[in-house]
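Q&A log
Question type: sequence-to-structure
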Amino acid sequence: MEDHQEPVQERENNPVESPVYLFTLKILEEAFESVKNECNIFESQDSNFER
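Response status: OK
Response body:
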């Protein structure tokens, strides 16, 4: 019976739902967006330079 209680505790402490994970995920998403924007700016400058 004790063995069946352990997985339940793991589910309650699910790292996916922890504030730290959500906070890290938010930072990663913002960083990805900023990198994507910089790449777009660089590509537009590069194409302008070639013309």
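Response note: Residues 2-50 form one domain.
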